[in-house]
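Researcher: Re-running this chain for the archive, since the previous output was lost when a drive failed. Same request as before.
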Amino acid sequence: MKKANRVFWIVLDGVGVGETPDAKQFGDLGANTLGNTAAETLKKRGSPLKLPNLLKLGIHHVTPIAGATEPSEIIGAYGKAREQSKGKDTTSGHWEMTGLVVNHAFPVFEKGFSPETLDRWVKENQLPGVLGNYPASGTEIIEKLGIEHLETGKPILYTSGDSVWQVAAHEEVFGLERLYSICKSARKICDELNVGRVIARPFVGDPRKGTPFKRTYNRKDYAQLPFGPTILDDLTAKKIPVLGVGKISNIFAGRGVPENIDTKGNTDGLRVTLEQVQTRESGLVYVNLIDFDMNYGHRRDVAGFAMALEEADTAIGKIMEAMHADDLLILTADHGNDPTYRGTDHTREHVPVIAYSPSLKKGVDLGVRTSFADMGATVYEALTSEAHPSGNSFLNQLI
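Model: Regenerated C-alpha cells:
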C-alpha cells in the first residue's frame, strides 16, 4: 500500500493503557484502564476478557491482558502514545491527535463557577436560578437534585476534574431545545473563561412516578473552536472526504468535519462504522465510541466496561473482514478513565496505537510515541502521500 484510499480511525473513548511518566502530577499513579479492567474481570468473573481480535492486533504487547492466551500470529502493528498536551480530557486528546498540542491547560473549577458568572447566565436565559454548581458525577447529581429540578425548573450545573461546564435538564419537562439554547449561551461565556467544553446532559424519568432518572443519548458538546488548523482542515482543503461518527464534529466545533453522523452509544457507533466500511468510497472516517467513558468509566463500572470492550472487539473483527487491501485501520483512545480507580474523573494514561491493513506488515512494534499527533500525521500521509509537520508518521514502518 503506497497510499490508502480509506482510513478508519476509531477512538475508544477513555480506554487508556497505563500511567504516563507525569501521572503523579495528575494524581493518577497506578491507573491502567485496559490492564486493570482485564485483571479485575478475571478476578471477579473467573474468566479473562474475550478480546480475540485485539489480541491478534497485538494489544497484549501494549499492556498485560490478565488470563489472555497469546495468539499464534500478530496481524497488526502495536504501540502506545504519550500526550504532550497539559490535560487529560476529550478536547485536548482529540486536538492533539489531529496536530494541535494544548500547551496551556484548560482551567478547571474545583469550587464551581463564580456568582457573577452564574448571574449573567441566569439573566441572559431568564432562568429561575441554578442548582448544583460544583464538581460531581453526572448520574449522582441527577439523583440528588433531579426532583428539585422538576419542581423548580432550575437547570443542574456541574463540572469535574476536566474543563467542563455541564448542564443537566429533563428532556421532556425542561425541553431539549431549551437545554441546547442555554448551553449555546454558556458557550459564549466559556469562551471568555477558556473552558474546554460545554455539555448538554439531557435526562428522562421521574422517581415519584416509579421511573428512575436516566440520561439519554441526546447529549450535545459545545467545544471551543480549535486555536489552529488540524489535519482535518488540511484534508478537507485537499477535497479528501472527512466523516465524523459520534461526537467528533462537536469536539472540533464543526471545523474540518463537513459531514457527521450522530450516534446513540457504542452499539450504534459500531454499526454505523461497519456500514461505512461496506459502502464508503474514499477518505477518512473518524469515530468516537463514547460509552466506555460516559457509561462505565466515570461510573466506575468494571463489568459494564468489560462488556463494552468485548462488544467492540467483535465489531472490530467484522470491520477488519470488510476492509479493502488499500484501507488503513487505526485504533486508539483520547485519555484514560480507569473504572477500578478512585474518584470519577479521567486518568492520565498512555493511549493504545494499533494499526492494521491487509496489505501492511504484520507484528510491527511501534514503540512509545511521544505525541498523539503521530497518529494524525500517519493518517494524513496515508491519504495524501505527503508528510505533515504536526507529528512523526509511522507509515514507513508498516510498508
